[in-house]
Amino acid sequence: MPDRPLILFPSPEHADREHKTPVFTRTIKPSFGRQFTRLQPSFSVLKTAFEKKALKIQQSPTGINPEFALVFEIIGTVDSFYTAVKHTEGFEWIFDSESDPFEPDDDFYQINKDSGQRVDDFLNGKLYCVMSNQQAMLQLLSLWQRYQNGEADVFKRNFTGLRDIFTHIKNIRKWEAQDRIAETHAVEYWRESLEFDGNSPVPFEIELFFRNDATKRNIATETIRREIQSLGGRVIQNCIISEIYYHGMLVELPRISIEGLVDRYEEIELSQVDDIMFFRPTCQSVFVSTTDSESYVANEEDVPLPRGDAVVAVFDGMPMQNHRLLRGRVIIDDPDDYASGYESKNRIHGTSMVSLAIYGDLKRNDTPISSPVYVRPILRPKQSGFDKVTESVPDDSLFIDVLHRAVRRMMEGDGEESATAPNTKVINLSIGDPVRQLAVTMSPTARLLDFLAYKYKILFIISAGNHPEVVNFVGKSFDELKSLDMIQRSKVFGGIIKDNQRNLKILAPAESLNGLTIGALYDDFTNTNETERRILAVDRGLPSPISAIGKGYRSVIAPDLFYYGGREFIRGKHNGEIDWVESSREPGCLSAAPYGTGDIDGCAFSFGTSDAAAQITHEAAKCHDVLDQVFLNQTGTNMPVDSTAILLKAMLAHGASWKPIADKLALTMGASPKQLSKWLGNGIPNINRVIECTKERITLIGLGALKKDKGDIFKLPLPVDFSTRLIKRRLTVTLSYISPVVSNKQTYRGAQLWFNIDDGGKGLVPDRQNTEWQAVRKGTLQHEIFTGENSIVWNDDDLIIKVNCKEEAAKINEAIPYCLFVSFEVAEGFNVDLYDDVSAKIHQRVQISNN
Questions:
Q1: For residue 503, which of 553, 554, 468 has the smallest C-alpha distance?
Q2: How far, in Å, are 497, 557, 562, 781 from residue 550 at the CA level?
Q3: How is 686-702 classified by DSSP, letter by letter?
Q4: pTM for this one?
């Protein structure tokens, strides 16, 4: 137990939430009459399309009332439209999303509320997608006509959204073939498959518009099945996860049909099926690891085996459970028998990730975690050449379904079997899908993780994804790059990343709102030097050039944290170009690995965001032990089970800072030192700063739960005189929570929680550091650092931290649990025992309740 442990806050005082300041611009929209005239041609087109489809389906087996997905392209938002659609017969809400910004014109533009002058900025747009039959659309048009003619009470209670959206519409159209492929790059995937996969059938995913009516879902499934069969293909799997509004089908088509889709996409009947939302490539996560590992010499020190239930789980490839480093430390759950045919020599990625979760980087000589690791294999070996085997997501099942079944089995059981690891609180997912970069809509896999996180109160630690292809954009020969010093090389890669950031985004499911996404630093614990034929890419400690960058969905800070991802050398190729060295030798992160044929134990070096995420998972298990002891000592009971995930999330982030590399990274990226969240997230975590306090630094933990429009007030007593001399001081506050989500609404996050600081206007910590204040409140993790050193009058006052809650995408009927970490510190060298003084004040107050 540390000499100065973390302290629990007393229970907070309750209050109403604070409200945001108003927006200072107003959007000018056309009149109702102007809109009616302007949009009349679009309605005529839709009317004709309905009539043609009605004739077409008269002879179909279904004989159903024809429906289209109608897309309302609007300026701004009309929140009441969602309610109106729910109450309108023949309409069904599908989703809404952001659109590309609209240029202002004579119909739509903004003015400044104060000056009344026109502001020629781009206008924010949205897409509202609604499933509609012809009768509903004609009724809608009739209502607008009657309102235009001056009739009263046309739009009754709950239907004003139908009226209000009309003046916001930029265009109205049906969901077209181009919509089904634009976001997902399906044609590029099909074209690449034709080039590399020979005559093999090509699998891909069809994501359908989710229909609330099971009968309509079945009709849609059968319609697509018939179209696939007519093209000589087959349906491999049909998957429905209603909680996240997901309906997907895994299908495959022969080469000749794929050629038709590539060359004549809009002529193929399949692309015109109105039930199809997106064509998506199948998950392409493939790990190709070299096997030039080394024999591992075990530490002679006898390290106790773990005890108790698993705290962390790893979903990855099958590990070598009998490896000397893993033996007795893993719990393998393989209900799908992935182990069959998974030779030991091919168990590379899973072995490495499990090893990193248990030990961290072996070069660091850290203590293994005290609990076993639950492992669920979700990768399989695949022959990908004459003598090449890769570990990849199986192509005979949907990845989202594999994940869903794995978590459900772990937390609540499978069929008659009981839950396999219900006390697990952290799941490491070092797998990203390179064909699903962050897009306008949240990926189905990320939606699933957010739903599962809230339902089971678990924390997903997710790798941000790798972009090794960044080296292809350098445009310099090996000799040219080698001639540059490290600062110059760093600037070269920084410029490349800035210029290509649209293609280097985080990979699904890293945009998860409730999870913790981890990027990679170009750093490790080796001391390898460059050679004539191998050089390093960027300065040590900077973000790795291959690490995916942010921001996340709706500009959420992502990745959340950056951690040791290892380094890899660059080599020159025969044609003068450059590439990464494919080697399992140093530098990099050291972990367990097969050796030779896999019959004896070994270790190998690797690099990337997978390694960084797995090492953060290792730190999470260590934080779990610290927190459990804090609660046990101060409350007499263990850490609250339902709060464990958010406590770990906050603790992992609380010690994060840009400080170690801020100036260096700003120089590399040509950015302001205050605008680095896109390149560094919340920063680099220093876990040692959070697991215990010092004489000059105290850390307190608060827990609570808030309903909508409510707030909690935490009071931090500071019995320190700041008036007689300049004392450098620093306040770090981290708020974490897990929000319910609404998967078919672009707002997505069900609830927003945020904190404010109130020092009574005295300027205790007036300067913000390490943050972009516009971005920190957009996710489910708010991490901010405040500093000050000016002389102020402070009469043994309390510093106030207020946590607030408001509804966003969902109606909140229950309180949202949250966790708050607060650290206050003064610079070393002052004769102040801050810890003893503050903790004495805290202990005079009622301690936090443990429920």
A1: 468
A2: 11, 7, 12, 15
A3: -THHHHS--SSEEEEEE
A4: 0.94
